[in-house]
Amino acid sequence: MNTGVEKQKETFEDIYSKSNNWSYWDDTDPLTRYLLDRRLQIGVKHLMKITNSLPQDWDVLVICGGVGGEGTILANMGFRSVTVSDISENAIQGCELRDSRLQTKVMNAENLDIPDESYDLVLVQDGLHHLPRPVLGLTEMIRVAGRAVIMIEPHAGIVANLLGMEWEDHGGVVNYVFRWNKLMFEQTVKSYVLQVPCQIEVIRLWNHNLVMDKVGKIFGGAQRGKVVVQLCYSLLDLFAGWLGNTTLGLFIKNSPLENHKQ
Questions:
Q1: What is the CATH number of the domain that holds 97?
Q2: Number of separate domains in the chain
Q3: Which residue, 11, 85, 159, 160, is the most exposed by fewest CB within 10 angstroms?
């Protein structure tokens, strides 16, 4: 079976070679920062509350990390160390140029070339649905996570079915846009870890940053626009449990997987 991994790598190498302007990840405008940071902050805050810990207690690996935008956000949050991985060497080179605080690895997210439980936390944001086999990407995250996994991906639901695309085309490489929900996430995790004691949490969110950016700028942008957008998301969150378009899944290990291997 053709997994599409090599063709995917070629395409993303080409995409990342055509641009070196990734400065928006470093934008200090309050509105832009809020939109970029929001979902990661929700996930990290929830994880820290559950585990009664602080970011500086954790080493984190970001998969499908591109030029390290999410890595920079996590480094700004104070994580002990942040490693960004991606299948594209050009993306990783861009990451190294952008933020010297980040460690980097060129890796295929479906087959991470590192030992089990290498990092405390393994995180992905909007990356699994680019993979030929997204479920394999999630199980690899679980394998190499020593303590927890955070997954932020499109949600399978009414809004996605009506408005979302089914197929995504990157320079001629087409992949199915895999979407998650609570049941899918729980079943994938449990089928992999079996009876290992763990905690699974799934939060449904809204994510309409392009629209919210326009709304914020209409109201003046910067701090004033940020306040308006925060209010909009607060109102939308009242309905997120039924209609939200993003799945935030957390998996927390209560004991190492190796203790339960036969």
A1: 3.40.50.150
A2: 1
A3: 159
Contact by Cβ (8 Å): 87, 8 = yes
C-alpha dihedral, 128 to 151 to 62 to 142, nearest 10°: -90
**Residue 22 to residues 27, 66, 178, 202, 225, Cα–Cα distance (Å):** 10, 10, 26, 31, 23
Is the Cα torsion angle 92, 46, 136, 194 positive or negative in sign? positive
Residue with tokens 């927890």: 148
Separation CA 125–CA 174 (nearest Å): 20
Question: What's the pTM?
Answer: 0.92
Sheet architecture: strand order including 246-253: 103-106, 81-86, 59-62, 119-125, 145-154, 246-253, 198-205
Instruction: Provide Rg for the chain, Cα atoms.
Output: 18
Residue-level pLDDT, tens digit, the chain, 262 residues? 456 788 888 888 888 887 777 888 999 999 999 999 999 999 999 999 999 999 999 999 999 999 999 999 999 999 999 999 999 999 999 999 999 999 999 999 999 999 999 999 999 999 999 898 999 999 999 999 999 999 999 999 776 777 777 787 776 777 778 999 999 999 999 999 988 889 999 999 999 999 999 999 999 989 999 999 999 999 999 999 888 999 999 999 985 544 444 4
Kindly list the distances between the CA atom of residue 258 and the CA atoms of 111, 194, 220, 239, in Å, as whole numbers in the listed order.
Answer: 19, 12, 54, 40
Structure tokens at 3: 């997994």
